[in-house]
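quick one before i forget lol
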Amino acid sequence: MPLDLIHISLASQRLIGLSNGVPLCDFPVSTALNGAGEQDGSGCTPLGRHRVRARIGDGQPLGTVFIGRRPTGEIWSPEFARQHPQRDWILTRILWLCGEQPGFNRGGNRDSQRRYIYLHGTPDDQPMGVALSHGCVRLRNTDMLTLFELTPVGCRVEIHEQAIEPLISSRTPTE
């Protein structure tokens, strides 16, 4: 059953995926260290209504490194990360977002798609539930795999500041 709505809460640092109102997944995330904002160059996570514009990375191995939305042929490891300490790691899969609200998160210098706002995997040594990203929504790689498999192009994504309670008590052991 594919997701038709993904809720992301900055206050709770959580993502909940729903299909016809039924929660199918509930994951901790890491959104922007700089908080909420739509301005290009702000390093903030944009609020509001979005859609998944593209699914990138289908069939790639867990931990695949992406640069410019293309797999590099590299697989993340702690040793590899020590060799490249300045990289902002985009791993495993990418769900590229497109804003749905002209003038707010779509168009001009407030365009989520042109800002390359993604949901993506991140190194396993990075904390979840803490805002540390440069604007994207980071997930554990295994959680990103699950989310990717459930999420079609066109799925609605709502990003907001309000807290949300976990909707699924028994979740995958990634926290």
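fyi Strands lie at 5-9, 14-19, 22-28, 48-56, 64-67, 70-75, 91-99, 118-122, 137-140, 156-160.
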